[in-house]
Design brief:
Shape: globular
Number of helices: 4
Strand content: 25-35%
Oligomer: single chain
CATH architecture: 3-Layer(aba) Sandwich
Strand order of the largest sheet: 1-3-2-4-5
Length: 106
């Protein structure tokens, strides 16, 4: 499954079940663009895992979500379980750091 583009209309529905890894980003953000291929790889890696979803939220298109989750620096990656935030990471990191974050919270 590719990275799911989420917005304010469908976000709550997208995160309400399972483990959901959300990349809050913006098109103008250099570090976000560097991280984009890593997030796409994660989505490919977890494609066959029905317990994990990878979402992307553009904060310019969904400013209320950024405000609701206190996203003050991007890229901001938040891990949700059944709609509740359980972990977060801010900034660029290697793929293995995000895999570790997901796996430790299963």
């Amino acid at each position: 499954m590719p990275v799911i583009e989420a917005n304010e209309k469908d976000f709550d529905n997208q995160i309400k079940t399972n483990l959901t890894f959300v990349d809050f980003n913006a098109d103008w953000c250099g570090p976000c663009q560097i991280l984009k291929p890593v997030i796409e790889e994660l989505a490919e890696d977890y494609e066959s895992d029905s317990d994990v979803k990878i979402l992307s939220v553009n904060i310019d298109d969904s400013p209320e979500l950024a405000e609701r989750y206190s996203v003050s620096g991007i890229p901001c990656l938040i891990l949700f379980r059944n709609g509740e935030e359980i972990d977060r990471s801010v900034g660029v990191a290697p793929k293995k750091a995000f895999v570790k974050l997901i796996e430790k919270n299963r």
